[in-house]
Design a protein that fits this description.
This protein is mainly alpha-helical. It has helices at 3-27, 35-50, 73-79, 87-112, 118-128, 130-135, 142-157, 161-172, 180-191, 201-215, 222-245, 256-262, 264-279, 285-303, 308-329, 334-364, 372-381, 396-402, 415-418, 422-432, 439-446, 459-465, and strands at 388-390, 451-455, 471-476, 480-485. A hairpin with a 3-residue loop joins strand 3 (471-476) and strand 4 (480-485). Helix content is 64%, strand content 4%. It has 22 helices and four strands.
Amino acid sequence: MSRRRSALAGALGVFLLTAFVVGSIRLAGPPIYDTDGWYHVKYAEVVRHDGLSRSFPWFQESFLKDRFADLNILYHALLIPFTLGDPLRGAQALSVLLAAVTMTIFWGTVRSLRVPWPALWAIGLLALAPEMTYRMTYTRPVVLAIGLALAGTGAILRGQARLAAALTFVYAHWHCSFHLLPCVALLHDVVAPAPGRSRFRTTLWTAGGALAGITLSPYFPNDFRMWWVSNVEVLRASWAMGDTLRIGTELLPLPPMELLLRNFGVFVVFAAALLAIGYRRRVPEEARTLLPVAGGFLVLAFLSQRFIEMAAPFTFLLAAVAVRDVVADHPIGDERQRRAVLVASLFIAAILWRTWAADRAAAADEDPPQYLEASAWIKDHVPPGETIFHLGWDEFPELFYADGTHHYLVGMDPTYMWVTSRERTLLWTQIARGQAEDLYGAIRNTFGCRWVFLPARYVTFSRRIEGDPRFHVVWANLFTSVVHLEDPPAR
């Protein structure tokens, strides 16, 4: 088989295998089981019907209400044609497609760095990083953002500054983490400067791509504020006061041992990469760049578990480069090489089957939609334009998907409310816990709401309003209820 046909077969194999693994995991669960997915599907429909907007009236307690910025504009544009039929099935299809593209990009990046057996490395990543593989099933722009980060890093390592800049420009319209590529470029220019060129040439090109991306946007300068809040304020708030703000679980740390056990394969590969690097007297340029990147993401994963989605691919990229150099220093015969590849393939196949089965079981165990029925009642019975008081930020996406005719307080992340008004945010959290002294006055007078969406899990709040004639439950099922705040009689 020619080298070109072999490469095509490898890329196609990685693409199809990823599509099968991710697709079968995704189909084992409900249509959407990552909270943010409801928002992305709905907002793609909003853009299709109404076009771009610099306001977001569905957030009444966020700076985004009047200064909205969509840092996922390209993702939403790509999602639009997938929402023309059944939007949830379309979102599933796009998620699988983007996961397959990202893993193929990983294969291509490994191959471009002259690493042997690139397909084996890609399939190994899919098998040995079950947390990352599961998150690849989400309806989120971060899935392809991982691929853009890998492609841009590969361009930086190969000295292709203009390609890195172009990828950074695209990245800036896809996901808020686009600053990663200028950081990688700066690190590479410091630890491995290209001979005969300006030392920070790649950094300048990549930073220029980021700057162009954020300024050549219909949302400038709102997008800069959004980028800052999404990357700095969100992490600051989650690390400093996650329980107080009821930050999303993925931003909180796992117990260290649990994180290690869930991602045991990633940490083993990182340890193997360190051994391979230490085996050589001189650390190669690519490893000098990738080591702090992979190590940095692993450290961040101990602070916020979501960073494992970036830690895993960069760890495998580091290991691939390290093993490449060891093999180059100590070549083995073709027969021994075939045996090693066979043994590695069988091992990875066994682990992949285990990862696939575990992730399918996790998807099947995800909660089905619980708010759609309540949202339908609200849409039919509450006057349009009313602001619905909800007690958690994570209720917003499903409510927004089912009912865009009403406004809400905040969604996606409570930090958007926190940076807008700390006083109102703390009051909102106290209300949700049933700790506010006057629940009625806080909801009706401070937030101006006459309707409360009340999931069953808010037991203390429910007990506080029970028997209070000002709170009238007008609709309920096993999961949620809708409460109307009766205005006091006129005197």
